[in-house]
């Protein structure tokens, strides 16, 4: 009888194991993950793993199928050299676009290096008032290099190459020093960070930057029907400050990345695993490469 029950248990458990298996992940070594000649005719998104004792911030490289490159944030000042080395490995000397989602040091600090080692054709940023030495250097370097700068807000659009369209969902219209004359709190600045929805053929990708729960609620109020995406990164690196159930269900994403070199919240990670089979934490998977032909999404990790 016990063998019969064992067989029944195996039959019941086996399908569950199959359902939970990551269908789209391939683990490869770092050299192959940064092979500049691979997947050239596809969309490539690389979440750069930056070594640091503390949270190292966002640095995301987006390459279009027709050869254009964008750097979405750049990590900290101390990790700028790592970002530069990754770009070197990929053979990237010129950035067609650079985006600074907000002026916190773990998002713009790496630009201190990149602005001096790479040619940047245009910078998109949010018009958020802030006052720090890291921001001062960032602004000085942009002025020194005479780089065209555009401030983004809700309703703006832009393209990377002929095939990638970006819709700006945040910050709200009218964001700027006139509206916020006094020093803003950390939470306020995060809630004004640039949120982008990228479309490539039949697939959509949402980049949520550092939104807190209040910023998520505001985004839902303005864009609930626009948030659904096939792929997205968890707000604020997967920290406990963010990722409300309402936002997760509105996005309804198939593939989710928690982008931080150290795990910000086990609770949030497990929450996402309750919604999707394909959840990837940079703290566990290292560098993450996302590719798409416009119909399918594939994930390559180094761990």
Q: What would you note in describing this structure?
A:
The chain has 303 residues and is an alpha/beta fold. The chain has a single domain (25-301), classed as Metallo-beta-lactamase, Chain A. Helix content is 31%, strand content 25%. The chain contains eleven helices and 18 strands. The strands form three sheets. Strands 1-18-17-2-3-4-6-8-9 form a nine-stranded mixed beta sheet, with no helix packed on it. Strands 10-11-12-13-14-15-16 form a seven-stranded mixed beta sheet.
**Total separate domains:** 1
Number of strands: 18
Which residues sit in consecutive blocks of at least 5 with pLDDT less than 50? 1-21
Report the radius of gyration as a whole number of Å: 20 Å
The CATH architecture can be named as 4-Layer Sandwich
Give the CATH superfamily.
Ribonuclease Z/Hydroxyacylglutathione hydrolase-like
* Helical residues, percent: 25-40%
Q: Give the DSSP E fraction (strand runs of 2 or more residues).
A: 15-25%
Main β-sheet description: 9 strands, mixed
Question: Might you state the CATH topology name?
Answer: Metallo-beta-lactamase, Chain A
Number of helices: 11
- Overall average residue pLDDT: 91
Strand order of the largest sheet: 1-18-17-2-3-4-6-8-9
- Element-level helix/strand string: HEHEEEHEEHHEEHEEEHEEHEHEHEHEE
Q: Structural class, judged by helices and strands?
A: alpha/beta
Q: What are the key terms here?
A:
303 residues; alpha/beta; Metallo-beta-lactamase, Chain A; 9-stranded mixed beta sheet; 7-stranded mixed beta sheet; 25% strand; globular
């Amino acid at each position: 009888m016990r063998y019969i029950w064992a067989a029944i248990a195996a039959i019941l458990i086996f399908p569950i194991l199959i359902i939970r298996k990551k269908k789209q992940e391939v683990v490869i070594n770092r050299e192959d993950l940064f092979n500049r000649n691979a997947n050239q005719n596809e969309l490539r998104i690389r979440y750069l793993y930056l070594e640091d004792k503390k949270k190292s911030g966002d640095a995301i490289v987006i390459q279009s199928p027709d050869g254009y490159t964008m750097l979405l944030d750049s990590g900290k000042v101390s990790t700028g050299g790592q970002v530069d080395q990754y770009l070197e490995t990929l053979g990237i000397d010129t950035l067609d676009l650079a985006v600074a989602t907000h002026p916190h040091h773990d998002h713009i600090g790496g630009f201190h290096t990149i602005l001096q080692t790479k040619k940047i054709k245009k910078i998109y940023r949010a018009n958020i008032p802030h006052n720090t030495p890291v921001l001062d250097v960032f602004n000085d370097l942009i002025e020194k290099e005479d780089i065209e700068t555009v401030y983004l807000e809700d309703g703006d659009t832009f393209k990377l190459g002929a095939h990638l369209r970006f819709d700006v969902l945040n910050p709200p219209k009218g964001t700027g020093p006139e509206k916020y004359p006094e020093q803003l709190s950390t939470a306020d600045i995060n809630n004004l960070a640039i949120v982008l929805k990228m479309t490539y053929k039949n697939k959509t990708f949402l980049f949520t930057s550092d939104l807190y729960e209040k910023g998520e609620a505001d985004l839902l109020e303005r864009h609930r029907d626009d948030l659904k995406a096939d792929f997205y990164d968890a707000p604020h690196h997967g920290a406990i400050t963010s990722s409300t159930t309402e936002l997760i269900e509105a996005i309804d994403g198939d593939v989710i990345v928690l982008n931080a070199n150290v795990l910000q919240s086990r609770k949030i990670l497990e929450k996402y695993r309750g919604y999707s089979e394909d959840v990837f934490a940079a703290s566990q998977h290292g560098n993450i490469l996302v590719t798409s032909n416009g119909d399918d999404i594939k994930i390559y990790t180094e761990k």
